[in-house]
Amino acid sequence: MNAAANVIEDKIDELLTVLDEDIRHIENSLSWLNELRTLVIRRDDAALQRLLESMRIEVDSYASNESRRRSIRKELAVALGCRCEEVTLSGLEPALPQEKAEQVTYRKTVLKKLIEQIKKEYRSTTLLLLDCARFNNLLLRAVFDLGKAETVYYNSDGAARRRTDTSLLNMRF
Question: What's the domain count of the chain?
Fold first, then answer.
């Protein structure tokens, strides 16, 4: 085995370690999204603050893994004699020994599945938060607009009436 092949194999081993960390981070993110939705629904502000703080700390520490991945990618590009943008998992697979190619393929497959899951969970979390915001806006509008002339209510015989003489809040500025 020549020196370039040794460098490539060493870098692939490092890349596999980085990919394992990526998998762990995405799994944690999935867990956070589930917990975030649960805490929002339960309205547990203290636990929500703790979750957000732990997420921030984890994301800050994960930045070093991203930097390491970029560095490995650049080093692989030099060793393979190509541009950095051309170094992808799919592009590396055919150039690797079968054992390493299988390891890369496995991690690529796991990452693809996790990415699909996180897209779905992110979409669900976004929809929940949008519904919460919409509901809060409706509540605020109902509370503060109650005494306005455009507020309409219906009495028992179905006739529409404008409510102008009542308000829920008595506020002084």
Answer: 1
